[in-house]
Amino acid sequence: MDYQQTVCKKDGVSGIGLHTGEIVNLVISPLKEDSGIIFKRSDISKNNIIPAKFFNVTNTKLCTEISNASGIKIATIEHIMAALWGMDIDNALIEVSGPEVPAMDGSSKEFISLIKRAGIKAQSKKRKYLKILDTIKVTDEDKEIVIESANNFAIDFDIEFNHQSIGHQNYSLSDSTKFEDEIGNARTFGFLCDVEFLKKNGLARGASLNNSIGLSETGVVNSEGLRCEDEFVKHKILDCVGDLFLSGYRIIGNIKATKAGHNLNNAMLKKIFDNPDSYKII
Q1: Does residue 262 carry a catalytic annotation?
Q2: Largest Cα–Cα distance of the chain, in whole Å?
Q3: CB of 115 within 8 A of CB of 28?
Q4: Catalytic residue among 19, 79, 235, 262
Q5: Any bridge partners for residue 102, and if so which?
Q6: What is the pLDDT of residues 22-38, one digit of tens each?
Q7: Which of 10, 33, 102, 113 is least buried, going by the fewest C-beta atoms within 10 A?
Q8: E runs forming strands in the chain
Q9: Average pLDDT of the residues in 275-279
């Protein structure tokens, strides 16, 4: 069986928050076995710890935000959670000097680099997995996630946007070791026609073509274009695995998602843990 892993040493990055527009520092540090992923607001001196668990999710509008009982929040955690999942990190402290994880380039790429710089080390206790025993489904109009029992992990994702640069896209990932190469550098995306509305509502204040794929009515506006033609659906997979890692475990099961987002990802975890007969920890 696999053993739990953490990072070897403390290391950090700085960047702008996608929604707040604030410059923030992020530092990753090792933690002992069975600690899980823990976030800490380094700019606040008391009640500043927020475990990365699905029951601490308090907002899923255009990102995933977690809060503690004191109302201390950290938003846009999904991209670093995906990087931690993809790099097999079970235990780590993530200190953030503000209310939002920095966007970096809009993908998990720079968080993966951070983890590599910090180093990865095996620990003394075996890793625990969340094994799905029964089919579980959550839906919201035409959006859906289904998880079925299996002997391994796989995710198959469909998206559909009425835009000539996206349309219908499908992608599958059945090997988490391929996350870095296939999924990790897929960037978040947004439509230019929505930007002013979002900014008026306190969102996307730090969004730019440096940390997002921008879409006009006619196509992608980033001068470098896309990193791959299916970058859009790959980013949705990135978001999904990051959100589902808030279970506290790696999932053993087959996931089929259609047009799903942060809200449905969190609803799936709530439904799993509300039905004890549907899973076991192994």
Answers
A1: yes
A2: 54
A3: yes
A4: 262
A5: 17
A6: 999 999 999 999 999 99
A7: 10
A8: 3-7, 11-16, 23-30, 37-41, 49-51, 57-59, 65-67, 73-74, 92-96, 120-126, 129-132, 136-140, 143-148, 153-161, 167-173, 189-191, 213-215, 250-258, 279-281
A9: 97
